[in-house]
Write a structure and sequence with these properties.
mainly alpha; 7 helices; 72% helix; 0% strand; globular
Length: 101
């Protein structure tokens, strides 16, 4: 799989060749675009990665690592039910506030 230049810039520390041979879009790519991507990488992810795959990522990892704002956006864009999204965002805010003291 080829990545657009805007996505490759987000993955500067990774071996892109190794990521390209994965049969499914690697989680590190999904996470990096969801957490740090601008409009172009976000549009690419929406067109490349199915809603089911995005939901699976959010359920398995994203809900624990994404900031609340990004988590809320990607949950909405991936058709995660509102009650589950609200719970995830609440947990993400609690995580952030734990670091602030």
């Amino acid at each position: 799989m080829r990545f657009p230049a805007s996505v490759e810039r987000l993955l500067w520390e990774y071996d892109l060749q190794a990521l390209r041979v994965e049969p499914e879009l690697p989680e590190v790519v999904i996470e990096r675009v969801m957490a740090r991507g601008g409009w172009e990488p976000m549009r690419w992810l929406l067109s490349t990665c199915s809603p089911e795959r995005r939901r699976r990522f959010l359920e398995e990892r994203g809900r624990r690592v994404l900031p609340p704002r990004e988590l809320n956006f990607w949950a909405f864009a991936s058709s995660v039910p509102e009650d589950r999204t609200a719970e995830w965002v609440r947990e993400a805010r609690e995580r952030e506030s734990a670091w602030r003291g």
